[in-house]
From TrEMBL, chain A:
Record flagged with keyword Oxidoreductase: yes
Name of the protein described by the UniProt record: 2Fe-2S iron-sulfur cluster binding domain-containing protein
InterPro entries associated with the record: 2Fe-2S-bd_N (IPR042204), 2Fe-2S_ferredoxin-like_sf (IPR036010)
Keywords from the UniProt entry: Oxidoreductase
Entries under Pfam families matching the protein: Fer2_4 (PF13510)
Organism: Afifella marina DSM 2698
GO molecular function, one term: oxidoreductase activity
Signal peptide: none
SUPFAM superfamilies (alphabetical): 2Fe-2S ferredoxin-like
TrEMBL record, chain B:
Record-linked InterPro entries: BFD-like_2Fe2S-bd_dom_sf, FAD/NAD-bd_sf, FAD/NAD-binding_dom, Metab_Enz_Cyan_OpOx_G3PDH, Opine_Oxase_asu/HCN_bsu, SoxA_A3
Protein name: NADPH-dependent 2,4-dienoyl-CoA reductase, sulfur reductase
Organism: Afifella marina DSM 2698
FAD/NAD(P)-binding domain: residues covered: 5-316
A molecular-function term among this protein's GO annotations: oxidoreductase activity
Phylogenetic classification of the source organism: Bacteria, Pseudomonadati, Pseudomonadota, Alphaproteobacteria, Hyphomicrobiales
Domain SoxA A3: 388-451
Domain of life according to the entry: Bacteria
Keywords, sorted A to Z: Oxidoreductase
Automatic annotation (TrEMBL), chain C:
Cellular component aspect of the GO annotation: cytoplasm
Pfam family, one: DAO
UniProt keyword annotations, A-Z: Membrane, Oxidoreductase, Transmembrane, Transmembrane helix
Biological source species: Afifella marina DSM 2698
Domain of life: Bacteria
Name under which the protein is recorded: Sarcosine oxidase subunit beta
Signal peptide span: none
Regions crossing the membrane: 7-26
């Protein structure tokens, strides 16, 4: 677990390893992790707020605050605290939205 | 009558007991829950593949958790269970559902039981949006559901029973605690003890956590005011004012904060239920009779979503709502069961009231929140902007202020800022809390992706 | 209240029409004005609309009034001290078939005679300038001086400016009756006030018919609710307001990022309920349009929907101007889904009419007299001749 990480695993560490990608870089999680856990056991933020562009890392973990929505590379939205990590998931922590792109 | 369709939203303690009661009467209710597994908040189940025992997960509540999980599992083929499915809108007797992949569905109901539970209540402080700051509930979920701590050295700040429970759970899991910072004066908590005798078991548990934490040398301060979280891009320190008025700084890499929980009432609002201000809860709640009937025919309320009274009462009110529904449909029901549930509900309500008094919502904190503090974390509007809107723009209630400065307008629909916005409005305007109104619910109750798949017609 | 119950003008209804009329009466003519609003200023249609400040596509006979309004929109900071987020970003009307392209072309040709210069945008230009548009667009018409504003801010800002200029703005004060005596109007409110004035402005929005009817001028007005939605904040990518030629779908992006959209069917409205609920099924339809229109919006989140109460007249023109029956009575209602842009212009015209008896803006086609045949059969849903069409 990186020094960078926010979350600290304290049990259940013999679960299956799940490879995934975040912003193109490979990373690993454990089966049964939420996307938020998968990210925050490596890093300390999952997105930037829209207006002030400040780092955010979720808040409620129960689908109430909506402050952990991120993206998959194919443009889908993921609420990180309430979505399970899946093998080879390709996640983005920055908006891929480019309104100007043709369809 | 068997053709009548009853829908239950929420598969926590309330929803589970409601479903069980309906199944016992020969109905096959639909149970919709956003979560992937049943159990609700307190008895939230860990994901498949985790192996911790119930005792480890739920402590004193392990037995109750096991009974509730078993109860739901026994219903599996007797209910139409829709896990991973959010109810995002309503129209008349139709509910609009979306699953995780954005698939849409519409289901009709003859009767509806809302068992949507509660979420943490928050008081903002400078830096509360920084990575590393979580709700107390969130901190608990990290541990219970993910076997993680939110940090290596966690400060807990707030009020209410969850404060000590989460601290206990974290310490037991091997976590290091920077301290427990309670905004309530200790004398107030102690004064509440006699009335909490309504539930000696719960009170004993609370005292046990407290004593255990003290014995394990966890720093505990009472009567504090959180001032700010400091750090570069993530939490490094918590600064607070202690009861002597001194500013004190505690190193920590995470903060868990919360002040009791509040009912999740958006769906009741969309369904047109009447609301009344509950002074003790400090929240507008849908009106209900003792059995959980709302003001709208066919809509019933149960559990913490109806009024926060904890898990045991949630089970009782879940059963009551189902019994009311059977009664209203002219179906037979067991009066003895109802009377028992009514008794449990009344006991639970008395305990909840005492708890509220012992751990009051710290209204006084709002007077000292700096103008620069963010109030609405979605729209990123500061307390100062909100105060100025109230003062200078003639916004006399919260919806008006929302219209002018966007507080409560973002993704979370005011779940995180609504309680604070109301209190700041009341203080700034010098009126009673009830006079500033409540944020109106708007569909979708949670964000909906635009790329929807509408398979089932509509 | 002391003797302040006598005014030069009493205005019933504090939407954008009433609030801007109060402002212009108090500032331009130093009239004593009472603006009486049942709820809060600009909390009904004026506060919940789409925010389109658009002239393109209006009936030509409305354009002089719309030009007058557009001039005021551009001067808001000087007039009322805030811009209400008005941005002259332009308005683009897009055709998806040859028929609607032909209609845009015909409108374009005629509009210049009415002082509105529009630019036709060929399909190649359209693709180049708006690469994010979905398939099927065959051409468009651009109105460079149109734009959009924040409806939640506009009417309240006029109300505050009117108050600063001395107008009495009475909120949460419902007018329950208005009668005309020899010396003027007597207006009664639910909280027991009696207001008097020689001139009464009926700008009670979708609820105006009640007052029109009480003076024997009922109109066949229908109340409906357009439905709106808004997405999460996105990087700012589209300045102009975009709409289909037939207005079945339209959208705009506010500067801080969210995309507001509307169009399509309306929700049914009960006048007793000032807050009609949006229909989830309509939202799903709108979202399909949104993604067809702008495929890059797939995956974006909708965070809120709402609706509002608007009065529609059969010929889609407002009832604006002097009563045909009652001296001193001015009507301003029935804006049929298009009154936000007109609002400040209507207020200005109402002020001129009330203070001088006349206005330089041609408003004859909007006279309530065109519905005179409608009396006294108040309830019959007649389809009156559209006396306004050119
Ligand atoms: C984070 C947290 C931790 C808590 N921990 C404790 C504790 O340790 N001890 C204690 O005594 N009490 C605790 N509580 C209080 C707790 O709410 C109750 O004890 C108990 O869980 C209430 O049961 P319920 O059935 O009313 O609601 P819940 O158990 O909250 O169940 C509600 C269910 O409804 C679902 N739901 C809500 N809205 C929708 C929707 N729109 N569409 C679909 N599904 C929806 C949710 O997914 C959830 O599963 C906690 C509360 C919270 C918020
Ligand atoms: C959802 C929606 C979207 C729209 N989009 C656009 C758009 O993009 N562009 C555009 O140009 N137009 C648009 N419109 C139309 C525009 O909003 C209206 O035409 C315009 O706001 C009407 O203003 P008003 O002042 O006449 O009415 P309102 O704003 O409805 O004001 C009337 C006021 O009268 C008050 N009132 C009623 N009865 C009484 C009484 N008895 N006593 C005291 N007060 C009373 C009401 O409370 C209300 O505040 C839209 C309308 C809606 C509903
Ligand atoms: S952390 Fe709050 S919704 Fe995910």
């Amino acid at each position: 677990m990186d020094e960078q990480s926010l979350f600290l695993r304290v049990a259940e560490q013999d679960r299956e390893i799940v490879p995934f990608f975040v912003n193109g870089r490979p990373a690993t999680a454990l089966s049964g992790d939420t996307v938020l856990t998968a990210l925050l056991t490596h890093d300390h933020e999952v997105r930037l707020s829209e207006i002030l562009e400040q780092p955010r890392a979720g808040f409620c973990l129960m689908g109430a605050c909506q402050d952990c929505w991120i993206w998959t590379e194919d443009g889908k939205r993921v609420r990180a605290c309430s979505t399970m990590i899946e093998p080879d998931m390709r996640l983005r922590t920055r908006s891929p939205f480019n309104g100007a792109r043709p369809e | 009558m068997s053709s009548s369709r009853v829908v239950i939203i929420g598969a926590g303690p309330a929803g589970t007991r409601a479903a069980e009661t309906l199944v016992a009467a020969g109905l096959k209710p639909v149970v919709v829950d956003e979560a992937p597994r049943s159990g609700g908040q307190i008895y939230r189940r860990q994901p498949p593949g985790f192996g911790r025992s119930l005792k480890k997960l739920y402590g004193f509540e392990a037995g109750k958790a096991a009974r509730l999980h078993d109860a739901f599992d026994r219903l599996q083929d007797k209910v139409d269970y829709r896990p991973g499915t959010m109810v995002w809108g309503t129209e008349g007797h139709n509910l609009h559902l979306a699953d995780r992949d954005g698939r849409q569905d519409v289901i009709g109901f003859d009767a509806l039981i809302l068992a949507t539970g509660a979420v943490d209540r928050i008081v903002p402080f400078e830096g509360w949006t920084m990575p590393g700051v979580y709700t107390l509930g969130g901190a608990q979920i990290a541990l219970k559901y993910q076997a993680c701590l939110i940090g290596r050295n966690v400060a807990l700040v707030g009020s209410g029973p969850l404060l000590y429970l989460v601290a206990y759970q974290y310490r037991r899991a091997g976590g290091n605690l920077a301290g427990i910072f309670d905004t309530t004066p200790l004398s107030r908590e102690l004064a509440g003890l006699p009335r909490m005798a309504a539930n000696p078991a719960n009170t004993a548990k609370g005292l046990y956590y407290f004593a255990w934490l003290a014995a394990h040398g966890v720093p505990m301060l009472h009567d504090v005011s959180p001032l700010r979280a400091e750090g570069e891009g993530r939490v490094a320190r918590l600064v607070l004012r202690d009861r002597a008025g001194r500013e004190r700084t505690f190193a920590c890499d995470a903060i868990a904060t919360g002040y009791h929980v509040q009912s999740e009432t958006q769906l009741a609002d969309l369904l047109g239920c009447d609301f009344a201000f509950d002074a003790r809860a400090g929240q507008w709640l849908p009106r209900q009779d003792e059995m959980g009937r709302s003001s709208v025919d066919g809509v019933y309320l149960a559990g913490d979503g109806a009024s926060v009274r904890g898990a045991d009462t949630a089970e009782a009110t879940g059963a009551l709502a189902a019994l009311a529904c059977l009664q209203d449909q002219g179906m037979p029901f067991d009066a003895a069961v109802r009377n028992q549930a009514l008794q449990a509900m009344r006991r639970g309500s008395a305990f909840a009231a005492a708890l509220r008094d012992a751990f009051p919502f710290p209204e006084h904190l709002y007077e000292n929140i700096a103008d620069t503090t963010l109030l609405c974390r979605c729209e990123e509007v500061s307390v100062g902007t909100f105060r100025a809107t109230l003062r200078d723009k003639g916004a006399g209630e919260v919806n008006r202020a929302k219209a002018f400065c966007r507080v409560g307008m973002g993704r979370c629909q005011g779940r995180m800022c609504g309680a604070s916005a109301a209190r700041i409005a009341a203080q700034t305007l010098g009126v009673e809390l009830a006079a500033v109104g409540r944020l109106r619910g708007q569909a979708p109750v949670k964000p909906l992706p635009t790329a929807l798949q509408t398979e089932a017609g509509e | 209240m002391t003797d302040a119950t006598k005014y030069d003008v009493v205005i019933v209804g504090g939407g954008l029409m009433g609030a801007s009329a109060a402002f212009f009466l108090a500032t331009r003519y130093k009239f004593s004005v009472a603006l009486v609003e049942r709820g809060r200023i600009g909390a009904q249609a004026s506060g919940v609309n789409f925010g389109n400040v658009r002239r393109q596509g209006r009936p030509f006979i409305q354009l002089p009034l719309a030009h007058h309004a557009r001039d005021i929109w551009g001067r808001l900071p000087a007039l009322i001290g805030e811009d209400c987020e008005f941005l002259p970003t332009g308005h683009l009307k897009i055709a998806f078939d040859e028929d609607s392209l032909a209609a845009l072309e015909a409108y374009n040709a005629e509009a210049r005679h009415w002082g509105l210069s529009l630019t036709l945008v060929g399909v190649n230009r359209l693709r180049a300038d708006y690469p994010f548009l979905g398939p099927g667009a065959v051409g468009a018409s651009f109105s460079p001086e149109d734009g959009h504003a924040n409806p939640r801010l506009a009417a309240p800002a006029f109300g505050r400016a009117a108050r600063r200029a001395g107008a009495h703005v009475l909120e949460q004060c419902e007018v329950i009756g208005a009668t005309r005596q020899s010396d003027g109007f007597i207006i009664e409110t639910a909280d027991g006030r009696i207001l008097r004035a020689p001139i009464l402005i009926n700008s009670a929005g979708a609820w105006s018919n009640r007052f029109a009817a009480s003076f024997g001028e009922s109109v066949p007005m229908e109340a409906r609710g357009p439905q709106m939605g808004v997405t999460e904040s996105l990087p700012y990518f589209v300045q102009p307001v975009l709409g289909t030629g037939d207005s079945s779908f339209y959208m705009r992006q506010v500067k801080r990022g969210s995309v507001v959209f509307g169009g399509g069917v309306h929700v049914a409205v009960d006048l007793a309920d000032p807050r009609p609920r949006p229909r989830p099924a309509h939202l799903l339809t709108q979202l399909r349009s949104l993604v067809r229109f702008l495929p890059s919006m797939a995956g974006v989140q909708v965070v809120r929907t709402w609706s509002g109460v608007e009065g529609y007249l059969p010929d889609k023109l407002p009832a604006l101007g002097w009563s045909a029956k009652t001296p001193g009575l001015l009507h301003a209602f029935g804006f049929s889904g298009h009154g936000f842009q007109l609002g400040p212009g209507v207020g200005s015209v109402l002020a001129d009419l009330a203070a001088t008896g006349d206005t330089s803006v041609p408003i004859e086609p909007f006279s309530i007299e065109r519905f005179a045949d409608n009396e006294p059969a108040k309830t019959s849903p007649v389809a009156p001749s559209s006396g306004s069409a050119r």
